[in-house]
Amino acid sequence: MKEISIALAGNPNSGKTSIFNELTGTSQYVGNWPGVTVEKKEGTWRKNKKVKIQDLPGIYSLSPYTPEEIVARDYLLHQQPEVILNVVDASNLERNLYLTTQLLETGIPVVVDLNMMDVVKKMGNRVNEEKLAYGLGTPVVCTSAVKGDGVEAAAEKAEKWAKDKTFSPTFPSYDRKLESALSEIEDFLPSTISSRQTRWYAIKLFERDTRVQAELSFSEEIQKEIEEIIQISEKIFADDSESILINERYEFIVKLVELCSTKKDSFKLTWSDKIDRIVTNRILAIPVFAFVMWLVYYISIQTIGTMGTDWINDTLFGTIIPNAATGAMVSLHIAGWMQALVLDGIIAGVGAVLGFLPQIATLFFCLAVLEDCGYMARIAFVMDRFFRKFGLSGKSFIPMLIATGCGVPAVMATRTIENEKDRRMTVMVTTFMPCSAKLPIIALIAGAFFPTSSWVAPSAYFIGIAAIVLSGIMLKKTALFSGDPAPFIMELPAYHMPRARGVLQQTWNRSVAFVKKAGTIIFVACILIWFMSSYNFQLKPVAEDVSILAAIGNVVAPLFAPLGWGNWRATVATVTGLIAKENVVGTFGILYGGMAEVSENGHEVWPMLQVAFTSVSGYSFLIFNLLCAPCFAAIGAIHREMITWKWTGIAIGYQCGLAYLVSFVVYQLGSWFFENNNFGLGQFLAIGVIGGIIYALVRKPRKKLDMAGVPSAI
Amino acid sequence: MIPLIEAELEKNYIFVGFASGKDAERTSVEKHLLDLGLVRGTEIKVVSHSGGNVIILIHDSRIAVDKVVSDNVIVSEYSVPVESAAISLDELSVGEYSKVVAIIGKGGVKRRLMDMGLTKGVSVFVRKVAPLGDPIEINIRGYELTLRKAEASMVLVESVKE
Hints:
The complex is a heterodimer. Chain A is mostly helical. Chain A is built from 31 helices and nine strands. Helices cover 61% and strands 6% of the residues of chain A. Chain B is built from four helices and twelve strands. Chain B is α+β, with helices and mostly antiparallel strands. In chain B, a hairpin with a 2-residue loop joins strand 4 and strand 5. Chain B is elongated and about 50 Å long. Classes of the chains: A mainly alpha, B alpha+beta. Chains A and B meet through helix 3, helix 11, helix 12, helix 16 and strand 9 of A and helix 1, strand 3, strand 4, strand 5 and helix 2 of B.
């Protein structure tokens, strides 16, 4: 038996990934906002390993608008799966069936999957799938993916339809005048095109699709004749050819929907709309948003999360594990250096990172709730008005919010932004948002230097946002990014109660990824750092100050002296932060804490830090680490989105440059203002830097390079 | 006809076209809006306003658009005829001549009416009205057409003197 591929295609947020997870037994990330899936994902059906399931990004139409839609379209048209399982949100039939008409026209067998049937029933509406199947000329199945109802049956149906030897495509029929134009165009098509695909090519030619025109490369004569046919139709319908087709598709659908569904007056405002009245209200929107964000961080960072973190830091990694490990190792007579490696290297380093798991898991939980209930998409809408002023689109906000969890998915989420310049800029600035891995750094600095003030942790977010906003204004004025942001158009999902299963699964997946990172990358990094800090180049155990690490760190450290922390430990910590930001704390745990009495309490590195840094230099260290290049994983994600190394270089260079300048200004002026340093060259330069930034903010924009608002990526 | 940005909450409108005009090259943004279901005659309701950014309800889905878009989208009120002088066909009395101004409504019925020849600018003569005012027999394009009152009310006409 030969392998077959079932492609899951449908509108954004119609539940393709839920069905994919159900069929393949995986737990890909699902969420209640359009654009969660931005890459094609492949899996095998649990029931039949010969069947491949392809999860595609959501599309509204086969004429792509955003980059992730191109992924889906190219797969469908060029890879030609054996069958398409068209996932349709049954609570929004008309709009969803629009894509169905286009999918049917590709000539690939299509099974229509009416998803969210539970929602339809709850609204008191009905859809008759037999009538729909008759009208479309293709099988129709009903599912409710969240509950898992009917999903297996849908895949079985698709498999059967793919193998059906009698299959011949049926196409939606349009107005007679349009049909005759299409059949006239079909006559020009070369015989090499299979009969299944003639309709698709005719329609594309009618729409004047340049890609298809180039592919067929007709003689000028034929081109002229086809153009004539199109122009005649345009005159008859008094519309342009693309609009004619779109109109006809919707006409066909409206008739079909009237035939097969009964619904109560759906044009009434639902309670979802009433929530929107308040949440997206001109005046209330921002206070509501601020309150929600405050609540998220209050819960995850200050209250519930902190309780867990304190327990892990003080009790688990502070007392229980070190004591147990020491006891076990002593009783087993393990070599002294090995004991040191385990206690000072692994437990101090990995423990410092894992200690933040409760806070981070709570943060992930809150973000998952926000996403699942449908508020995420509203935030983009609310913030659009403000972001536009800084040259960014509201869609840039979703990546930034995701970035508070992790920068890698955040950078990938930028794919829903249609304008290439907007997208590149968002990629560049998104990681300014403190991600969960930077939380430990914030907590460390806040705890060590500012134990009594509560503004330090929020200030990290404020600095992140300020860096984004100021970057938006500055970058928009350069020739690279000039031009208006693309108009904001986004479908808003209906609100629903967050589903425990989805939210918990997402929290679990992300937390596991965090722990895994601590157990792998950070584990190895900790061992390396411990080794390099405990031995010299002759591989003799030495004091840290003359270790390999100190030698290397001392070479680079002067670079950071103007920022107030030109010592080798801080330098090494920053560099190890590139591997993973949690490493900054892990490294401190080894370099400062390793020598201290680990068992006494989890915050043993604070006093050591207080000696090495002043408050201002500590804060400058924090800022640099927040704003500089993200970890390698995120840099990789940035490169994937930017495609060229030139753009990746621009992004990383800009981030590091800005981080350096801001830390420099903060340290130089801060030390003069708060710590009574003399006003000297450093302070003078710092003021110069501020002047330069102000100039970059207010100068006249460079002339626009191309037409405003026209996405250049498509 | 007003741009979407000026539309009131909770009122029904229908989409008329883009302010940039029909002859202008369709931008990819306009194309995307068409794909999302904003075709001529689509009912629109404004769910929320926020300084030029609006959330609209079309085809059972909620779409958020910004000021640039809401300025460009032209809508007209659903219940009120597009042109003030126009009345609906069922309001004419026997023997009156009129000219079709527009067909309101959407979908199959509208298509059907237009298929029967009730297109913009065609002249209509009311021949008979059944005792209870339903159906109505009219004369268009040289033939007699009988319409139910419900359908006739979707045809907007302006009366023509003789």
